[in-house]
Amino acid sequence: VYKNEAYHNVGLSLRYARKLTDKVNWSIQANITNAFQGDKVQAITTQPDGSMATGMIREGMSWAITNSFDF
Prior knowledge:
This protein is an all-beta fold. 0% of the residues lie in helices and 56% in strands.
């Protein structure tokens, strides 16, 4: 029996909103995906000798900033 390391995905977000006028609201949001993850190949299945048979590419950290106006 071959066991692989466990993995976790951590996402962070921060949002700020403000009323610009009586009819217009503005907000900005920052999102971080895979906050503590670097790019790497992780084994999914193994060969009988313990070497990797199938792997997946784990995406590293990424981020996005979004602005929104509500009328």
